[in-house]
Design brief:
- By secondary structure, the chain is mainly alpha-helical.
- Among the domains are: 94 residues, no CATH class; 61 residues, no CATH class.
- 60% of the residues lie in helices and 4% in strands.
- The protein is built from 30 helices and 5 strands.
- The chain has a 3-stranded antiparallel β-sheet, with no helix packed on it.
- Strand 2 and strand 3 form a beta hairpin.
- It starts with 12 loop residues before the first helix and ends in a 6-residue tail after the last strand.
């Protein structure tokens, strides 16, 4: 209200009485007094009425009335009224949104030196609304207002320096302007300054200072700052503080906080796992329109966690999200059609939804779409299209897609066969921890395809995959230990590895285990059995034993050649080679047999044709695991 006592035409008694009543917070009386003098043409009273109608002081908020009174004062040259009228035109409050009108009124106020008008004019120049976009002009007007201590202009000028728009990029200058506005109490500037302390840009990196400024903004009910505080405390495992800030933000309906609380209770992160509470948080966020929470709620129904299991409810939630073009929901809706969960199975519909999500750039959907083209499910088989979508996902560092793209290069499907390129993509997947990429890279080093043959490197990659439970890798690592290729020979470890691979379904490991057993004593067999019994997925595999000594190898029958499991070489030399071309019979009906390990399959047809395919895993929501189906003929 201090603006009301700026130099104005001769004061009216009613205006003075209105000021007195306003100072005592008697807004009803103030409104009545201002109205008398305003109707007599007093600009200060007209401006005062505009503010009271806008803020709802002594009267219900009414933007149209506010615009009417601001305009009367603005037409008399009242700068504050001109800048407020510009703001309402800019925001479309009480009047149709009109950037050109906003610019015209802002310039009138700015030319009189009004800092609010100068700041609005800067915003319009920066955004190119109502004026030709001009970052330099924006910086000029922000600076004029900032020099008058207008905190919003100071923050806006800092942002220009931070991004190098209209001024040279200068993080220190940005931080200096942010600090001026932050110290004046502007919460947006406090968050910006906190961000700079957190990243160490323009100021020395300081978690303590970042928390201090986020806290100041949070105390002004800035939910974004509350969320940042929650994330900072959670990252340092100070869960009680993290939960307190998330809950404060959630109490103000901040969607990311509601969803994060759901995630913490779903996975037991910093709190006791409680699926019912997770569902409650997800449901609250979903009711407010949060698509990520809606997607998570669908997952809870699909898995029967915190709610009764219902494919239909999950399908409905995913469909709602998909119709709002949420890519993750589109991808999951595709999976529901793919598997016939909550809806009649429809591979074509699955492909349609995978495509929608894939075209939005979702790597998981791109991989699913590629797999559909590769297997000819829901769409005509097209290896080139498969390669195209595998590549899009792979270039986003989707590990499974990188491995699949490597497989296509290794087999010459959709691209010219190129083992070096296959190795490149296998390596990218392997370095991200993908067990198939690690296994396939081990095979390449074993066979010397695309890389110089290197048994030690093969052992290294087989071991990584084997420790993740890849049974083919366990078998091949066993062969290495049996033969002493790339590692010191140790038939006890070889037996343990063959034992693990056989238990996991590898079709060569049983014979390999039986052959090695003939070389071992009773004590050695006991140790090998104990090693395999004690091992669990994720544990390091054994590298030493107590019963096997290289110098004291027991007499044994000559060993038959070990049977490694490898790709793309045929698993057993007595079988016809695997074709790299499409040799599938062109008959009305097809019959075939398939042999698969973890989705790596060889399909044999009645005409003797043998083709290698990889099938994509399907998600079993009941045990929360991915499983590999048998390929179709």
């Amino acid at each position: 209200m201090a603006a009301f006592v700026l130099p104005l035409p001769a004061a009216y008694a009613d205006f003075d009485q209105g000021l007195a009543a306003y100072g005592q917070k008697d807004y009803v009386t103030a409104l009545a007094e201002f109205k008398v003098s305003a109707e007599q043409g007093h600009a200060g009273s007209q401006y005062a009425l505009g503010e009271m109608y806008e803020d709802g002081q002594g009267v219900a908020p009414d933007y149209r009335q506010a615009v009417e009174w601001y305009r009367k004062a603005a037409d008399q040259g009242q700068a504050n009224a001109q800048s407020n009228l510009a703001r309402l035109y800019f925001m479309g409050l009480g009047v149709a949104q009109d950037a050109a009108q906003a610019a015209a009124w802002a310039r009138k106020a700015a030319d009189q030196g009004d800092s609010h008008g100068q700041n609005i004019l800067g915003v319009l120049y920066e955004r190119g609304q109502g004026l030709s976009q001009d970052a330099r002009e924006a910086a000029k007007w922000y600076r004029k207002a900032a020099d008058q201590r207008n905190d919003r202009a100071q923050h806006n000028l800092g942002s220009l320096y931070a991004h190098g728009k209209g001024v040279p990029k200068d993080d220190r200058e940005a931080a200096a302007w942010y600090r001026k506005a932050a110290e004046a109490g502007l919460s947006d500037a406090q968050i910006s300054l906190a961000d700079m302390y957190l990243k160490g840009t323009g100021v020395p990196q300081s978690r303590v200072d970042a928390i201090n400024w986020y806290r100041k903004a949070a105390e002004q009910n800035q939910t974004g700052a509350m969320m940042q505080l929650g994330e900072l405390y959670e990252s340092s495992k100070e869960y009680a503080d993290a939960l307190a800030w998330y809950r404060r933000a959630a109490d103000r309906s901040h969607l990311p906080a509601l969803t994060r609380l759901g995630e913490m209770h779903e996975y037991g992160q910093g709190v006791q796992q409680d699926h019912r509470l997770a569902v409650d948080w997800y449901r609250k966020a979903t009711a407010l329109g949060d698509m990520k929470a809606q997607f998570s709620l669908g997952r809870m129904y699909l898995n029967g966690k915190g709610v009764a299991q219902s494919d239909q409810e999950a399908f409905n939630l995913y469909r709602q999200g998909a119709q709002r073009e949420y890519a993750w929901a589109q991808n999951m809706l595709g999976w529901m059609y793919d598997e016939g969960r909550g809806v009649k199975q429809d591979k074509r519909q699955a492909v349609d939804w995978y495509r929608k999500a894939a075209e939005q750039g979702l790597a998981q959907a791109q991989w699913n779409l590629a797999a559909a083209y590769s297997g000819g499910e829901g769409v005509a088989r097209d290896d080139r299209e498969a390669v195209k979508w595998y590549r899009k996902a792979a270039e986003q560092n989707h590990a499974e897609a990188q491995n699949s793209l490597g497989f296509m290069y290794a087999q010459g499907r959709g691209v010219p066969q190129d083992h070096s390129e296959a190795v490149r993509w296998y390596r990218k997947a392997a370095e991200q921890g993908d067990l198939w990429g690690q296994y396939n890279l081990g095979v390449k080093y074993t066979n010397g395809e695309g890389v110089p043959q290197d048994h030690a490197e093969a052992v290294r990659w087989y071991r990584m995959a084997a420790e993740q439970g890849h049974v083919n890798a366990q078998n091949n690592l066993g062969v290495k230990y049996e033969r002493g290729e790339g590692v010191a020979a140790n038939p006890v470890i070889a037996y343990a590895l063959f034992n693990l691979a056989a238990a996991g379904g590898n079709d060569l490991a049983s014979d390999n285990r039986a052959r090695v057993a003939e070389r071992l004593s009773h004590r050695q067999l006991e140790e090998a059995q104990a090693l395999s019994s004690a091992w669990q997925v994720g544990m390091p595999l054994p590298t030493k034993t107590t019963t096997w000594k290289q110098a004291a190898t027991p007499a044994a029958k000559p060993a038959a050649p070990a049977k490694p499991k490898g790709e793309p070489r045929a698993a057993a030399p007595t079988e016809p080679p695997v074709s790299t071309a499409n040799c599938r019979p062109r008959t009305a009906t097809l019959s075939c047999q398939s042999s698969c390990v973890n989705g790596n399959c060889v399909v044999t047809y009645a005409n003797g044709c043998r083709m290698r395919v990889q099938v994509r895993p399907t998600f079993n929501a009941f045990n929360s695991q991915w499983e590999y189906p048998s390929p179709s003929c």
